Amino acid sequence: MNNYNEYIKKINSVMMKTDYLYSKWAKDHSVSNYVLNIMYMLRTAGINKQKDIADIYGMPKQTVNTVIAELNKKGYIRLIPDEKDKRSKIIELTEEGVKYADSIVEPLLEYENKVLEKMGRKRVEMMIEALRQYADLFEDLST
User: Fold this and answer.
1) Across residues 49-69, what is the average pLDDT?
2) How many CB atoms lie within 10 A of CB 130?
3) What is the largest CA-CA distance in the chain?
4) Could you tell me the pTM of the whole model?
C-alpha cells in the first residue's frame, strides 16, 4: 500500500484553512457560520428542508433546528407544511429574509467570484472534479 500521509496532511491543512476562512468571513460580517451556511443554501442552492441542510453541511440536526427557529422568530423565514411529507416543513424566505440573506450572501458570492476569477476556469474545473472524486471515493470506502 502506498503511503500518502504527506498528501493527507496537505489536503487536511487546505480544507481546515478553507473552513477557517469561511468562519472568519462570517464573523467579520457579524453572522454565525451556521446562519451563513443556511442562508447561503436557501438563497443559492434551493435547498429548503432542515434534513437536507443538516445532511449536506454535516451540521447536527438540533443545531439546524435551533438556527431555523431563530430565523423564524426574527421573521426571516416561514415554515410551510410539506404536502408530500407531513413530518417535514419547507423553509421559505420571507421578503425580509430575502433582504437579509442577500446582505450576507451577495458579498460572499462577489468575493468567491473574485477568487475563482484569479484561479481561472480550467483550474476551477480541475479543482471541482478532484474534490468531487475525493468525496465520492471517501464516501464509497466508508460504506
Assistant:
1) 91
2) 11
3) 56
4) 0.85
